[in-house]
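User: quick one - fold this with 0PR bound?
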Amino acid sequence: MNVKGIGRRNILNSLSRRLSEDLNFKSGKIFGSMCTEPHNFARSVYSAHLEKNIGDPGLLRGTLSLEGDCIRMIGTILSHPKATGHMVSGGTEANVMALWSARNESRKEKPEVILSSLAHHSFKKAGDMLGLRLVVIPSDKHRLDASKITNAITSNTILMIGTAGTTDLGLIDPIQEMSEISGRFQIPIHVDASFGGFIIPFLKDHGSDLPDFDFRLKGVRSITIDPHKMGMAPIPSGAVLFRNRRALDTISYDTVYLAGGLKSRGTILGTSPGASIVSVWSLLNLMGQEGYQKTARSCMRLTEHLYQRLAGIDGVVVISKPEMNVLGFRSSRMKISDLSRQLRNKGYAISTFPTHLRLVIMPHLTRSHVEMFIETLIEVLGKNRHSSRAIKDRRSKAV
Ligand code: 0PR
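Assistant: Sure. Structure tokens for the protein plus 0PR:
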């Protein structure tokens, strides 16, 4: 650190040089992120409230009441306006809280949780931190196989996890079937709708026949849903909702000394941005259900367009028909790692899974970005075809 400050102009110049290495959403080359350009209005509201620390909630009784409104509005999206919960830092904190609460409420000595091999890696963190045994059901068909759940249940099972919008392909686990199993065995469900929560309900509003996944299903105890993904809120912004107040009480701690005179909220983080609550509240009110329906439809239209374009390219295999704005594909001619590397060399940021490359068609992407991507993909695959042919030719000459 310098002894003396170096002056704003120097700092800003330095920042613009250093940050030019960052990728940005406007480039149209980030096809692998579940986050997006935050809505401008939410961004400006957020920056006006940077000083607020909701870790001392009694100081921010106004912000606290906005948090209550957010939970009610999000609860309405998830078919339970009376749900309780908190605005948190994102899907990881929300998932850990849901498992923490289930563990404390169960009071079992050796608690076990059933989940799919495709569940988000935050559950591994939660299992490790909370001393939970994770009973993993291999999901080779891209979603949880509900027929394998019953066999995995033991007297120690405290919870099943279902995902609505899987990380790798944006698919929905059979949560309806899980809910029936839940009724039979009295084992509650946590739904990770971190990604899907802000798109599935709005696609359903428009007649899509996606299955139910939320509090409408009796077995669902808690839901994770992230405004900083399809909700278009600034980072960090997640939410965890519980069907009953009691679930939240099991993870609440009394802190009697806080300056505002109220105890802490029962989230994992202490000091945390009240700005995120204020901006989500503003954004939910600005967008309304219609705003999110419009965004959901436009992302889905673009996803369907991309799906058709990919399906029309010789040598491209689309993994499954998209249910929401996530698409997986691979090449029948190139190794996944080679294709990923070559697209990355062309500036594209795409997630690479063992079985496919994942594209997430977020609101920052447009039709021309999609066309630009398709052109690049055709070029990469074309070059590879020549080089693989050349290798084959050389080999056959050598023979
Ligand atoms: N649950 C699911 C189903 C998720 O997909 C994710 C994150 C989480 C929970 C955890 O959420 P937080 O990251 O908010 O804690 N899924 C994204 C992913 O793995 C996270 C992400 C977002 C990664 C943007 C990269 C990126 O650029 O793809």
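One thing worth noting: The mean pLDDT is 95.
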